[in-house]
Structure formats: C-alpha cells, structure tokens
TrEMBL record:
Coiled coil: none annotated. Its main location: cytoplasm. The keyword Signal applies. It is found in: Cytoplasm, Cytoskeleton. One of its GO terms (molecular function) is kinesin binding. This is Kinesin. The keyword Thylakoid does not apply. Keywords: Coiled coil, Cytoplasm, Cytoskeleton, Microtubule, Motor protein, Repeat, Signal, TPR repeat.
Length: 207
C-alpha cells in the first residue's frame, strides 16, 4: 500500500508543477499584453509541427493520375467511416491508399508518413496496438530521414508512439520518447505553444 501512496503523491506533485508552469506562463503573457489563449489560437493557425509543403502530389502528372484520384475518393470515405466509429472498415481503405502512394510517389515521402500515421490511429482505435506501433515506427523513420531528428513533425510521431507504449504498459520506453518530444517542442515551438503544454500533460500521465 505504501508504494501506491508514493505514486499518488508523485502525481499530485507533478500536476502541481504543471499548474504552476501554466500559471507563470499565463501571467507573463498577460503582462506582455497577449493572453495564452490568443497565443494558442495563433499556434493552431500556424502549427509548428506542420509538414513542409510537398511537390509530390501537386505536379500536373500526379494530379491527373487515376490512382491518386482514387486515393482522394478513399480519403473521403475513410473520414466518413471514422466519424461513424467504423474503424475496422476504414483500415482496408487506408491500406489501399498506402499501396497507391508507394506505387506512385515512392517509398520515402512525407505523404506516406501521414498514411502510416492514419493506419496507426485506426488500429489503435480497435486496440491493435502492436500493428499501430509498426506503422508509427515506419512513419518515424521516414520523417527523421527527410526532416531530421529535431523537427516538430518528428515529435508528433514520437508522442503517438509514446502513447502507444503507455497503453502497452511499456512505461520506460514511453517516458523516453515523451521527453525527447518535449525537448524538440522546447527547441522549436516556443514556451507558450500548445504542443509543448500537451507534451507536458502526456508526460504527466506516466507518473
């Protein structure tokens, strides 16, 4: 029972530290004449973890490619199924898009990482965390190779993979990735960015 008490105390201390951090940031923002909520809106409009604009899907050749037109149609269907909670039905469609992208724009593109990320999300929704982990690792490897290891879009995948590990009770692995994501956001997104705050919150779930 004693160790459970210690864990509870640790959680309280962590949440108190997080609250103090947010209060300090809010106060400093107000002094500067800009509220934290206003900065949050700004960060959402210009998210620092956005992927760079790619030319892979915007060339005239690709726009007229019937396979990519099919992929766009499948994307709309996936969104509808997702909104209805029909995740298992959406997975084969996302896998078809993955196959189309691999055939048309190549194996090592940022667009591919978005499909891997979507497949990971869908599999997580049906509690297939093992398969979701595989897709997230694929996305992480590609983003690191294209964007570098310190890009916020890499941190976004790190956060998702860390959450996947947390669900699997792999707390050490999860903590390591969450701390790395937090460091990336601190380096790139500024002290008031909502991504940094969310990363702190995710880290707090581990304690």
């Amino acid at each position: 029972m004693y160790w459970k008490f210690l864990i509870k105390i640790s959680k309280i201390c962590l949440m108190s530290s997080l609250l103090a951090f947010l209060t300090q940031e809010f106060t400093q923002s107000s002094v500067n004449g800009q509220s934290l909520s206003a900065q949050t809106v700004e960060s959402n409009n210009n998210s620092c973890d956005s992927l760079p604009q790619s030319q892979q899907l915007t060339s005239s050749f690709q726009l007229n490619n019937p396979q990519l037109i099919e992929a766009q149609r499948l994307n709309q269907t996936i969104k509808q199924l997702y909104d209805q909670g029909l995740y298992a039905q959406a997975i084969p469609l996302a896998e078809r898009i993955l196959s189309i992208y691999q055939e048309t724009i190549g194996e090592n593109t940022l667009e591919l990482t978005e499909i891997y990320n979507r497949l990971a999300n869908l599999n997580s929704r049906i509690n297939n965390t093992t398969k979701a982990e595989i897709f997230l690792k694929e996305a992480l490897e590609i983003r690191e190779s294209i964007l570098g290891e310190n890009h916020p879009a890499v941190a976004q995948i790190l956060n998702s993979l860390a959450e996947n590990y947390r669900i699997q009770n792999k707390y050490y692995e999860s903590e390591s990735l969450q701390k790395r994501a937090l460091s990336i956001y601190q380096d790139n997104c500024g002290e008031h960015n909502i991504l940094l705050i969310n990363s702190l919150s995710n880290l707090g779930l581990l304690y």
